[in-house]
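Example 3.2
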Amino acid sequence: MLVVTTNPFIEPAKDFAAMSGLLLIDRTGLIDWASRGKHLYDVLGIDPQAHRPAW
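Structure, written as tokens:
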């Protein structure tokens, strides 16, 4: 699940997200993704190969 906000995430929220498998995008990430055309995998800092379906 992806959580997007225009505000920064506080440390407890980041910790909770990490424990819960949530992906977070804050204002900076949102601008990079929506306005600058940065790929979502790059904004999230994740490996696209690790998140591909195995079909």
